[in-house]
Amino acid sequence: MPVWVRRVLVLCTSWPLTACAGRQSVLDPQGLQSDRIRWTLFVFLAVAAIVWIAVVLVLGIGMLRSKRAADRPLDLHDGFEDRSGRVILILGIATTIIVLGLSLVSYAGQRTVFAKDEHALTLKIIGHQWWWEVRYEADSPDQSFVTANEIRIPTGQPVKLELESADVIHSFWVPSLTGKMDLITGQKNELQFTAKNAGIYRGQCAEFCGLQHAHMAFAVIALAPDEFGRWRDHENQSAASPTDPLGKQGEALFRSRGCALCHNISGTLAGGQLGPDLTHIGSRTMIAAGTLPNTPATLGAWISDPQHIKPGNLMPKMPLQSDEMIAILHYLEQLK
Ligand code: HEC
Ligand SMILES: [Cu+2]
């Protein structure tokens, strides 16, 4: 085989490994639960590999061992039934032990993955076609707020998610932190996890939910507890009123051009519930459920034609003059 072919082959086999790390990976766990899931996976893989190798070895030996030619090859020799009976019995016992052992491993893993902690920080996540509503609900309503597509959590503290759906079935999956859980209309599912390290972890809807299912991503941003506390205090505040004329014009246009029918901005008259809450849109990292980074250019592109960026999504293309567009954009960017 020419050297270059071998080099290409080595390169190809190493490609899949590049997927084993980073912000969305089962094999690079960053949470207590995902750690346990990976461990369970490796135990299953190891046992399955050992069994497979043993079977192939026995098969190979059987094929290679030459058998002396006999007059009547189908006749069983003495003791054959005894011996094969014993082999079958031993293998049957081994199979039972392996299956029971793996069940125990799986059960032990579930105790970590589905453990409930009463002092967990509780959030409500509502799946919509095709974005995520994230509700921080404290005991007092003035400490509660709503955001979208971005879930900030403190590290080292259990987080409990109450999962619901506004329309069809979605599935919440952050591979780096824990396993999947479905969001189902009229049912409240729960998922708990604890992030070990600060970082940004990508999540994705894992249940086909319509046209833009693939563009229904989100980010879990794990912050040090004090940083999380500061973010939470800030997020609790209503949107700041614009002081400059362009910002004021933007705020008025946001209402008069219909945006307020679908979007809520706390502390203003905009109270729509059909689309993501925009109270602090200026401080989010992505827009349109992880489809684009949040920059003035992408925000402008989104508002001028959301159907071009995410065809079929539930925000219609709004007829706006370019000066109106500039004012609305200017206003939204102030909503940090
Ligand atoms: C009919 C309801 C509706 C109207 C009217 C509407 N939107 Fe939306 N908007 C949505 C929905 C639904 C989404 C989420 C789309 C998605 O990601 O799938 C959205 C997303 C957005 C986002 C991105 C938010 C995020 O966090 O990803 C911005 C910004 C936005 N809209 C601004 C506006 C502005 C400005 C107007 C007025 C010109 C407007 N919207 C009018 C429903 C609406
Ligand atoms: Cu979905």
From TrEMBL:
All copies of domain Cytochrome c, residue ranges: 245-336
UniProt-listed InterPro entries: CcO_II, CcO_II-like_C, Copper_CuA, Cupredoxin, CuRO_CcO_Caa3_II, Cyt_c-like_dom, Cyt_c-like_dom_sf, Cyt_c_oxidase_su2
Keyword Transmembrane helix attributed: yes
Transmembrane segments: 39-64, 85-108
Main location: membrane
Membrane topology value: Multi-pass membrane protein
Protein localization: Membrane
Function text: Subunits I and II form the functional core of the enzyme complex. Electrons originating in cytochrome c are transferred via heme a and Cu(A) to the binuclear center formed by heme a3 and Cu(B).
UniProt record similarity statement: Belongs to the cytochrome c oxidase subunit 2 family.
Protein name, per record: Cytochrome aa3 subunit 2
